[in-house]
Write a structure and sequence with these properties.
The protein is α/β, with parallel strands linked by helices. It is built from 14 helices and 18 strands. The radius of gyration is 21 Å and the shape is elongated.
């Protein structure tokens, strides 16, 4: 019954709990348990669900393939989940519970940089390796953590390609990039603020003038004030980072207010399903992404990136956002490290993780001394004819960027 509850994504509200498997120890019989505090409720619940489904799909396929072999014995994987309610303090509390009460010695990360920042000191304190897939904040990797490993690209890379693309377009038109103007709105969380720092640094390096630098409201429910300024100042580029709710808010209010901007770049377009939710209104939007099904990566478990996308959609009924893909890759990294370590000793597994060099359907994975993945670039989608199409970097582009975005009056 507990397993069925987990599969249905139900929670026991009083306990804030979604639990899979027994919780007596990290290894019971032929099963090794990973733990994760994850956002099943609260403002990050959409991406939390994508993250959980990525974890679960990788566990399912690994187990169906016979599990992992450690020191000559086969083991299955399972995951103990708790709902962190999208709250950092709750996430840290639940990490303590997983380690001290449930006996978990291997952690999968939560969703978001803020939650990862809250949990990392706990796992570090207890020497528990954590492989995380959804905490991209650069500041996570300046603390000297020895047990934190991240499969995704870090925040400063997210919208850098959009700023660079605008500069490339300007130069191709015979226009100096310094004549461009940029507007920006960011959520006040570690992830988005790191993106802000990267965008502003990129704009400064290219001589692009920043005319709006706003903070999104805490509840991500209204950005009309920012959009009114965009209407008045007419910047060439608008960048917004506020996770799935921020992307939804930007598209919805820009359509409602008929805000015209030649280039709009967002984070979390796919997890917000801007195409499904907004249709034509989402056209021309540029979307930062950690991964795309059209990329040429592959592995022996899922096959190609396109194969993973097909498997995920068959299992869950929708195309996978990159949060699901990177989460599946995190489980694969743990499985690989367990087998190479030949033991479930935490220190030995940590050392094996630090020596990871592997290709997955999600991309190449190799960690530097801080735990960052140094082997995988970001990509930039554009919504073209109701599809996400990679337009940057050029080496991965499937289509040329469509620019400028036509005024609303010419679109509908």
């Amino acid at each position: 019954m507990i397993r069925k509850l987990k599969q249905l994504g139900l929670a026991t509200a009083a306990l804030g709990l979604v639990l899979a498997g027994t919780a007596d120890a990290k290894v019971e019989g032929d099963t090794v348990y990973l733990g994760s505090a994850i956002s099943l409720t609260g403002k990050y619940s959409t991406n939390g669900e994508h993250t959980q489904r990525g974890y679960d799909l990788a566990v399912k396929l690994i187990n169906e393939a016979g599990g992992i072999m450690v020191d000559g014995q086969d083991y299955m994987l399972d995951i103990i989940y708790y709902d962190d309610e999208s709250t950092p303090a709750r996430g840290a509390q639940l990490a303590e519970r997983l380690i001290n009460q449930d006996g978990v010695e291997f952690m999968l990360g939560p969703y978001s940089s803020g939650l990862t920042k809250a949990i990392a000191p706990v796992t570090e304190q207890y020497g528990v390796p954590m492989v995380e897939a959804n905490g991209a904040s650069l500041s996570l990797f300046t603390e000297g953590y020895q047990y934190l490993f991240a499969v995704l690209s870090t925040t400063e890379q997210y919208l850098a390609s959009a700023v660079a693309l605008a500069a490339e377009i300007a130069e191709a038109e015979g226009r100096d990039p310094s004549t461009l103007t940029l507007a920006a709105a960011f959520e006040n969380d570690p992830f988005s603020q790191d993106i802000r720092n990267g965008v502003l640094a990129d704009a400064e390096a290219l001589g692009i003038k920043v005319v709006i630098d706003d903070q999104l409201p805490p509840e991500l429910n209204d950005m009309a004030a920012t959009l009114a300024k965009v209407k008045a100042l007419k910047p060439d580029i608008l960048v917004v980072s506020g996770h799935a709710k921020g992307a939804t808010l930007a598209i919805r209010q820009m359509e409602e207010m008929r805000v015209d901007v030649p280039m709009l770049a967002l984070t979390h377009c796919d997890s917000a399903d801007i195409i499904g939710n907004f249709g034509e209104a989402a056209e021309y939007t540029l979307c930062a992404s950690q991964w795309a099904p059209s990329l040429s990566y592959s592995d022996d478990l899922f096959g190609s990136a396109a194969d993973f996308a097909a498997t995920f959609e068959a299992e869950y009924g929708y195309a996978p956002p990159y949060q699901a893909a990177e989460s599946a890759a995190a489980v694969m990294v743990f499985a690989d490290a367990f087998e190479r370590a030949g033991t479930f000793d935490k220190a030995a597994v940590r050392d094996a993780l630090s020596e990871t060099v592997m290709e997955t359907f999600y991309g190449n994975i190799e960690f530097d001394e801080t735990g960052k993945n140094i082997a995988k670039p970001m990509v930039l989608y554009q919504v073209q004819d109701g599809e996400y199409v990679v337009v940057a970097p050029t080496a991965w582009a499937a289509s040329e960027v469509r620019w400028p975005t036509p005024p609303w009056a010419d679109r509908q």
